[in-house]
Amino acid sequence: MLATARDRAACTALAELGAEPFILDITDDGSIAALAEKLAGVPLDAVLANAGISGDQAMPMEAVTWAEMHGVMDTNTLGAVLLVAALKPNLLSGERRLALGMSSLMSSISSNNWGTQYCYRASKTALNAMWRSLADEWCGDGITCALLRPGFVKTDMTSHSDRGLDVDVSVAGMVGVIEQLGIADTGRCIGYDGKDVPW
Amino acid sequence: MVSGANSAAHVVIVGIETPIGATLAGLYQSTGANVTGSSLDGDMETEAARLGEKPIDIVIFADAFNAPARNAVELERSDFEAGLSRLAFKPLWLANRLRSALSASDGPGKIVLVTRTAATMTEPDPAGSYLERPFRAAAHALWKSMSVEWQPLGIDCLVIAIDDATTVNADLLTTIADTSVSPEGCVLQDAAGKPLGW
Asked: Its domain of life (chain B) (predicted)?
């Protein structure tokens, strides 16, 4: 198990969990390149692009700036696709060949009947579209490109809301989904509960 | 209700220089509507101030964007900027600046995002896989939010997929005129008003 974080303190915490830690900031192309160089020749069964930010969730629509939209997209969308692209050689030498993106119910346009969180929603919808394109392109390589929906989870992003799922429940659900994934699932967006997320 | 038969209609077409924009302009002009052309190329503050000077019945974003083909491993971060700005950020920004002018319309204001079926999740688009499709999809998401929040203000936000200017005809004007958005927000439609999947 390899895991990444943006700073050494977080890497220490990952090591204590039994993972082999690496420094990575997916908004930094040099950081992605450095990780790919360190992992050159290492087969990977799965790459999960999990990094994400919410941005300013309370920002009114009319106040959305280029800096806000670009910043949220940079992490949630662009960094994710650039990361898995950089590690494609590792996936090709792995057995399961899973390129996974962390999506959200907020990515679902059809489920949105209350607005708000414009940049976050847009970034996750764009991530879905990126992954659909990846699925089309990489299907011939036998790489399964799938999106996961963790649910509303008690994390820093949700201020550990009482309404949220426990992290263990969400993760256990997603692990169960990942264990069953195959090339027939490429292009799907699947929740921790095993249900497809509507576009 | 603003329609092609309403000669007093003030229609703003953003991207009037594109084949779809020019065709729409001709159709609306033939009905007697007052058509104002616009572009996302210049200074946006100046353009928003110019367009917002008088009530607007219909705003149509018909801008064109041609992204170069790239494989995923060829992508560079800077490649994404143009599509994100042109397809998602600028339309959202300008739409918000024109909200007051749309609210001042005699009937329900309409703000229409022209998109492509190839930008949906179900239609693969190799040419714009990474540099166009995701940002058109992002714009769909933004328009959906806008449609929910502006429906109570009397503004209908529509998303219509048009892949070819030759399919732009009077039926499209009817679709724009006749489509009312529910409190649940807009759906993706084709030019004839048929619902499509996102």
From this structure: Bacteria
